[in-house]
Specification:
Shape: globular
Number of helices: 3
Helix content: 25-40%
Radius of gyration: 18 Å
CATH class: Alpha Beta
Structural class: alpha+beta
CATH architecture: Roll
Distance between the termini: 52 Å
Largest sheet: 5 strands, mixed
Strand content: 35-45%
């Protein structure tokens, strides 16, 4: 097999693996309350940044490194997640999230453009490890109320509140 063809096969395989790792996404048509219309560029940016925040959260919780939250979280969301990381690290534990699906609905876009509220019916697998040994694993379905605020280059999660669903 030529070297060129082998490189394309490897690249295709990696992209297929990365695509498989992406959660399923459904977004209801954006018609949030508020006096400002939600532009498609803003909608796309919010969704991308929100999904990126889930990846940052997962990495931070798995590695017990709260600084990994800095890019995507601010305010109470960052404070609560940092506290959770500190608690689990002090117990010699870590947790792993694998988000499988997000069903996002835009609820409110503030007239001044400084906050967006959305709900997310998320499905994910949650695992708890103690000293690198799996202690528990559970499939979860929860509704999140999320408030994002714009930063210099991206939207940050300011509030992330979950209520488990049956």
């Amino acid at each position: 097999m030529s070297r060129h063809l082998m490189i394309h096969c490897i690249a295709f395989g990696l992209s297929a693996c990365l695509a498989a790792a992406q959660p399923a996404l459904r977004v209801e048509p954006a018609q949030p309350q508020g006096s400002q219309a939600l532009a498609e560029q803003t909608r796309s940016g919010v969704i991308s940044d929100y999904l990126s925040a889930w990846q940052s959260m997962g990495s931070a919780l798995e590695q017990n490194r709260p600084e990994l939250l800095d890019r995507d979280f601010v305010g109470s969301a960052k404070d609560e997640l940092s506290s959770t990381i500190a608690q689990q690290a002090s117990l010699g534990m870590r947790s792993r999230y694998r988000d499988d699906a997000h069903d996002i609905r835009f609820v409110f876009y503030s007239p001044d453009g400084l906050s967006i509220e959305l709900t997310d019916d998320a499905e994910y697998e949650f695992q708890v490890y103690a000293r690198d040994k799996l202690q528990a694993a559970q499939r979860m379905h929860a509704r999140y109320v999320v408030i994002l605020t714009p930063g210099a280059a991206r939207w940050s999660v300011r509030v992330l509140q979950a209520s488990p669903q049956e």
